[in-house]
């Protein structure tokens, strides 16, 4: 099945209302559910239809955040080293071997936590604003409307407030997932150590625990990303956005996981290149950093842009599928949308 085209979104095809913060976008038609590849193709179509808007978002809002995250110029490496040693001590005392890969995992986890904490002001301002702009632009594309900056600025305050509250809940969910993982990992390793198993054996159950955490983390991220789009396009935020996200994502989890996997691999690849080519290597006087650094920041920003656009497209296909699942009772799409909104208010 190919990706949808512009004709499928005309008002003649079961109009669906985008409620809450974007009342002017009211003629977005229903369309078939899509897999991850079709969502990527649809994202490319939207990007080609209005490249100037999305490139402006990339350069003005996403690139500064990407530069800060990749370069780590805001981060005190002593704090990262201290936290990494603490995690390594916890791992060794739990029974894990003092292997190089365990040390690398602890250092990477410490760097990620410190980087997220230090860059929080950028993440909660520029990045959230970028995601709000992307969701708004995708919705305008589906409604057949031109993106008007002045109209967006009228509702940006409420959009950002909703997204900021939802982002706080996202951070809490991720930190809770991480806390459960560390507690479970330490408990498993300590239990096996008390039973007399050597560190070389304990590492295998630990890897299974890491695999379980990775699956739980992936599901948390896709629900969180969808909740972020909901908080931008609907009058919902925080727990309501999460509950709405969980309801919408039913039956679409596989596509969400593939989107998460693709974006994670892309971001990790560019981050690895930046670490190796810019932070570690240089040619002669270090002139390679002059062009490789900005190029990799641009690549990283583009992956973030595409991921955010795919999340917005994923929201619309999940929403359309949810409405189709309820349409068998004879209600119109507008009535179903009102029923869904009332259900969200109850929760």
What does this molecule look like?
Helix 2 (51-71) crosses helix 10, helix 7 (199-233) crosses helix 8 and helix 7 (199-233) packs across helix 9 (253-280). The two termini are 36 Å apart. This protein has helices spanning 36-49, 51-71, 77-93, 100-118, 120-143, 149-194, 199-233, 239-248, 253-280, 288-326, 333-346; strands at 15-16, 28-29. It has one domain (6-74, 119-346). The protein is mostly helical. The protein contains 11 helices and 2 strands, in the order E-E-H-H-H-H-H-H-H-H-H-H-H. The protein has a two-stranded antiparallel sheet with strand order 1-2. Keywords: Membrane, Transmembrane, Transmembrane helix.
Number of helices: 11
Tell me, briefly, the overall form.
globular
What level of helicity do the residues show? over 70%
Which parts are unreliable, with pLDDT below 50 for 5 consecutive residues or more? 1-21, 325-347
Helical/strand content category: mainly alpha
* Neighbour order of strands in the largest sheet: 1-2
Report the β-strand fraction as a percent range: under 5%
Q: What order do the SSEs take from the amino end to the carboxyl end, as H and E?
A: EEHHHHHHHHHHH
Rg value:
22 Å
Q: Overall mean pLDDT score?
A: 79
Please give the number of β-strands.
2
The number of domains is: 1
Keywords: Membrane, Transmembrane, Transmembrane helix
């Amino acid at each position: 099945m190919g990706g949808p085209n512009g004709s499928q979104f005309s008002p003649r095809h079961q109009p669906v209302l985008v409620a809450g913060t974007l009342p002017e976008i009211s003629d977005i038609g229903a369309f078939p559910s899509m897999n991850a590849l079709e969502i990527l193709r649809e994202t490319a179509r939207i990007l080609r239809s209005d490249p100037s808007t999305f490139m402006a978002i990339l350069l003005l809002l996403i690139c500064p955040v990407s530069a800060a995250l990749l370069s780590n110029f805001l981060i005190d490496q002593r704090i990262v080293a201290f936290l990494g040693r603490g995690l390594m001590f916890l791992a060794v005392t739990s029974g894990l071997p003092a292997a190089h890969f365990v040390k690398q995992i602890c250092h990477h986890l410490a760097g990620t936590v410190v980087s997220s904490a230090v860059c929080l002001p950028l993440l909660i301002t520029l990045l959230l604003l970028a995601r709000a702009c992307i969701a708004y632009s995708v919705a305008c594309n589906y409604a057949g409307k031109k993106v008007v900056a002045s109209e967006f600025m009228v509702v940006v305050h409420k959009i950002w407030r909703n997204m900021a509250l939802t982002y706080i809940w996202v951070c809490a969910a991720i930190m809770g997932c991480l806390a459960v993982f560390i507690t479970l990992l330490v408990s498993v390793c300590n239990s096996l150590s008390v039973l007399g198993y050597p560190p070389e054996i304990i590492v295998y159950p630990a890897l299974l625990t890491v695999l379980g955490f990775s699956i739980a983390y992936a599901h948390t991220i896709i629900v969180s990303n969808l909740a972020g789009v909901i908080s931008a396009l609907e009058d919902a935020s925080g727990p309501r956005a999460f509950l709405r996200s969980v309801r919408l994502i039913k039956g679409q989890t596989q596509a969400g996981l593939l989107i998460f996997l693709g974006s994670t691999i892309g971001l990790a690849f560019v981050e690895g290149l930046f670490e190796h080519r810019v932070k570690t290597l240089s040619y002669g006087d270090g002139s390679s950093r002059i062009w490789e650094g900005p190029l990799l920041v641009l690549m990283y920003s583009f992956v973030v842009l595409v991921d955010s656009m795919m999340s917005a497209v994923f929201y619309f296909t999940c929403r359309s599928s949810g409405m189709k699942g309820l349409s068998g009772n004879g209600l119109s799409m507008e009535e179903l949308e009102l029923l869904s909104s009332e259900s969200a208010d109850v929760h």
